[in-house]
Design brief:
It is a single chain. Strands 4-3-6-7 form a 4-stranded antiparallel sheet. It has a domain at 43-122: Immunoglobulin-like, CATH 2.60.40. The longest helix has 17 residues, at 4-20. It has 145 residues and is mainly β. It has one helix spanning 4-20; strands spanning 43-49, 54-61, 67-72, 78-84, 90-96, 103-110, 115-122. This is Secretion system C-terminal sorting domain-containing protein. Residues 1-26 form the signal peptide. Keywords: Signal.
Length: 145
């Protein structure tokens, strides 16, 4: 049975590892495919973690190209794959990691021209049980004077 302390420790470790990755912000408001402020990118990716072991993947797709989102485990097995529509829109996908085993997971987002890979590391720490000790001293008598 998992304790709340274990969930807190696991969430802290996952968030520290996740925040250590280089951030890329999705500029969701920009949908004009000829905007030169993006440096020719056809899409941008942003990720953040919620407190309940859920990772949100946000994307802004600027060019009408097919984008593929793939999630792989450390053995390379595909756990999730979704082909996004060929349109310039915003996407948000949620991934639950509360039942995932410890290991390294790769999110790969590609449009066959550009590929972005983000790694997520899951580390399960054993729960630390708190101990409480109550001691009693020798009996003594109290006298009221």
């Amino acid at each position: 049975m998992k304790t709340s302390a274990q969930h807190v420790v696991n969430a802290l470790i996952l968030s520290m590892l996740f925040l250590a990755a280089a951030p890329i912000n999705a500029q969701a408001g920009m949908t004009n495919p000829v905007d030169s402020g993006r440096g020719g990118k056809s899409f941008e990716v942003g990720m953040y973690m919620e407190s309940n072991w859920t990772i949100n993947l946000m994307m802004a797709v600027y060019l009408p190209k097919r984008v593929v989102v793939t999630l792989r485990n450390e053995k390379g097995a595909v756990l999730f794959r979704q082909y996004l529509n060929k349109s310039s829109v915003k996407y948000r996908l949620k991934f639950r990691f509360d039942e995932a085993e410890s290991g390294v997971y790769d999110f790969e987002i590609t449009d066959d021209r550009e590929t972005v890979v983000r790694q997520v590391t899951i580390v399960r720490m054993p729960a630390v049980e708190s101990q409480r000790v109550i001691t009693f001293g020798p009996p003594r008598s109290l006298s009221v004077e």
